[in-house]
């Protein structure tokens, strides 16, 4: 009956968003009077996996198949379905990502589960009603949804709950798990993989410093990178910036790019077009720096500075360095 | 090559979203509907592939007649025929059941759609359809080339991208820059009028989830402005007031 959490690894360590998902699952488990089990796919160090316990998982099922080191929605879904059956899990939690959505969809179809993606808070559970709130229209609205099927898959936004990074529960018990994985999932041939390794990933980042066309060209990006490094932040950009190849495509944030939900989003020389806002309006705190006091972004900001980024960025960087 | 492209009909990205009927329905008054931007990319690539390798592009929409202008636009952009399943789908599962049902009656080499719809932002329909049809699926796909029965796909993965080779048939969720957006030509618009648009009834589905009320976000508090000559204050406020650094 355990609540099952699908967790993601990054270079063998559990991702922060996955710890958040475990904590979220543990809160539901407490409400339902049951335990929490995490499912980890691919090569991982078991001392890393034990840490899932700090956040509330009693047990981690670990599928140590190296073929799963590679993103594979089909095989992941097969493993998840078998884990859900073994644990008799009626509630399954998945942290939102492109891969998470694909795994949720496939597992949902197999389990005839209700799947809701983009959940923004804890469910309301009263009697037979299991109600969640989901983000729609790129953050311009929310929908309340009753998950009616016996099995429920909840794909949650990164800040669905506030994660306690210093949680101190007892270590989880790590168990080897060997689901039957069909060959169909491994038929595609991988020709090449290109990954940025030593950057903070945008979807995981707590702070993002993002630049728009106001930065004038790639040669000025060091101003933004310096502030990002002083704050331990990831860097993002607006769409024209990646279209112009000033920055790589995977940094582009918005409606057609990545959607991010950091604690702090600092927008430098970005006008705040609605398509850009669609990717950032789930952030907890938004700072806008723009020389145009009429820039629409100020309407969505918590803090604003009207001024020239070329002058302001170095000053912020100095001030941020003094903090550390 | 036979390609099925599933399109959504959604409010324009700049539309102001409001609700009617006691907050249970989208208020479509004054809202311009468009083909979902990601679906538009999928459609453009499908038309390019058809032009290269000969074949047929079918567009499919699950929904009511108010999407017919978007379906006609898809035909004007180069799709050969269209099917509309005449039902307002209850959820992603319902949508996927309808798509899978149409797909089973025909043999498509490729089923393309956007990586997500911009109304519900769920990104799960391609995975559901693929599972129902027992096919592989990939998303988000940024580049797609077909050589015989092999697809070469560039997809975004966590923190990067990857190039794969997979055999058709496949289900793919697409995003830019898979193709250039196109505008319909005059000739396209003229011929679209006579291309077949078949309206078919839905198949029965179970309802796994029930959408209740819609809400709008709480209005944002006023933005605290910091004078440019005191920019450093920002860092202190972020630390002591907002507590985000
Ligand atoms: C269907 C569709 C989807 C889209 N998807 C996305 C998306 O996902 N993400 C996205 O970002 N955009 C998207 N766009 C584009 C979007 O509409 C805007 O064009 C884009 O976000 C603008 O980028 P920008 O703010 O960097 O550039 P601009 O609009 O050119 O703004 C630059 C800003 O920098 C300021 N500035 C200039 N110099 C300085 C200086 N020295 N100091 C301080 N400020 C300065 C200016 O005042 C201005 O506000 C989409 C558009 C469409 C139609």
Automatic annotation (TrEMBL), chain A:
Residue span, Electron transfer flavoprotein alpha/beta-subunit N-terminal domain: 3-190
Source superkingdom: Bacteria
UniProt keyword annotations, A-Z: Electron transport, Transport
Keyword flag ATP-binding: no
ATP-binding recorded as keyword: no
InterPro entries the record matches: DHS-like_NAD/FAD-binding_dom, ETF_a/b_N, ETF_a/FixB, ETF_asu_C, Rossmann-like_a/b/a_fold
Family, similarity comment: Belongs to the ETF alpha-subunit/FixB family.
Protein name in the entry: Electron transfer flavoprotein subunit alpha/FixB family protein
Automatic annotation (TrEMBL), chain B:
InterPro entries named in the record: ETF_a/b_N, ETF_b, ETF_beta_N, Rossmann-like_a/b/a_fold
Gene3D superfamilies the record matches: HUPs
Annotated keywords: Electron transport, Transport
Location of the Electron transfer flavoprotein alpha/beta-subunit N-terminal domain: 23-209
Transit peptide found in the keyword field: no
Pfam family, one: ETF
Family designation: Belongs to the ETF beta-subunit/FixA family.
Protein name: Electron transfer flavoprotein subunit beta
Naturally occurring in which organism (per UniProt): Dyadobacter sandarakinus
């Amino acid at each position: 009956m355990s609540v099952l959490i699908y967790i993601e690894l990054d270079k063998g360590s559990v991702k922060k968003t996955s710890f958040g998902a475990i904590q979220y699952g543990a809160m539901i488990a407490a409400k339902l009077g049951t335990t929490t089990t995490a499912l980890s796919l691919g090569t991982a160090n078991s001392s890393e996996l034990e840490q899932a316990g700090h956040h509330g998982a009693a047990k981690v099922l670990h599928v140590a198949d190296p073929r799963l080191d590679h993103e594979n929605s089909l095989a992941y879904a097969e493993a998840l379905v078998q884990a859900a059956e073994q644990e008799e899990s009626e509630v399954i939690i998945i942290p939102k990502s492109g891969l998470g959505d694909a795994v949720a969809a496939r597992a949902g179809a197999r389990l005839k589960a209700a799947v809701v993606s983009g959940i923004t808070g804890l469910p309301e559970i009263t009697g037979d009603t299991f109600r969640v709130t989901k983000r729609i229209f790129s953050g311009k609205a929310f929908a309340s949804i009753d998950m009616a099927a016996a099995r429920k898959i909840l794909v949650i936004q990164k800040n669905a709950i506030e994660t306690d990074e210093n949680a101190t529960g007892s270590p989880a018990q790590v168990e080897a798990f060997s689901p039957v994985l069909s060959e169909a999932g491994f038929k595609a041939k991988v020709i090449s993989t290109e990954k940025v390794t030593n950057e903070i990933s945008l979807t995981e980042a707590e702070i993002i410093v993002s630049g728009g066309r106001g930065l004038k060209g790639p040669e000025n990006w060091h101003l933004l990178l310096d502030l990002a490094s002083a704050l331990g932040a990831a860097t993002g950009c607006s769409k024209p910036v990646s279209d112009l190849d000033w920055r790589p495509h995977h940094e582009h944030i918005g409606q057609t790019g990545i959607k991010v939900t950091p604690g702090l989003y600092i927008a430098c020389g970005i006008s705040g077009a609605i398509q850009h806002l669609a990717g950032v309006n789930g952030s907890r705190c938004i700072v806008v720096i723009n020389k145009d006091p009429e820039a629409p972004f100020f309407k969505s900001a918590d803090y604003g500075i009207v001024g020239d980024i070329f002058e302001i960025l170095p000053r912020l960087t100095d001030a941020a360095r003094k903090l550390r | 090559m036979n390609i099925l492209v599933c399109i959504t009909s959604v409010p324009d990205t700049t539309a102001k979203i409001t609700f009617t009927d006691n907050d249970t329905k989208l208020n479509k008054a004054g809202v311009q509907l468009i083909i979902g931007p990601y679906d538009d990319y999928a459609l453009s690539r499908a038309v390019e592939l058809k032009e290269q390798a000969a074949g047929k592009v079918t567009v499919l929409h699950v929904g009511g007649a108010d999407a017919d202008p978007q379906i006609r636009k898809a035909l004007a952009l180069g799709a050969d025929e269209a099917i509309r399943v005449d039902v307002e789908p209850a959820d992603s599962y319902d949508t996927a059941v309808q798509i899978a049902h149409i797909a089973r009656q025909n043999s498509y080499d490729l089923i393309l759609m956007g990586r997500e719809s911009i109304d519900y932002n769920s990104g799960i329909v391609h995975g559901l359809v693929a599972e129902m049809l027992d096919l592989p699926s990939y998303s988000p796909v940024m580049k797609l080339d077909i050589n015989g029965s092999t697809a070469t796909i560039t997809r975004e993965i966590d923190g990067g991208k990857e190039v794969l080779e997979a055999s058709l048939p496949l289900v793919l969720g697409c995003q830019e820059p898979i193709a250039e957006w196109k505008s319909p030509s005059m000739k396209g618009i003229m011929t679209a009028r006579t291309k077949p648009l078949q309206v078919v009834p839905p198949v029965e589905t179970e309802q796994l989830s029930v959408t209740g009320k819609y809400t709008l976000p709480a209005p944002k508090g006023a933005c605290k402005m910091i004078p440019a000559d005191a920019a450093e204050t920002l860092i202190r406020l972020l630390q002591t007031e907002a507590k985000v650094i």
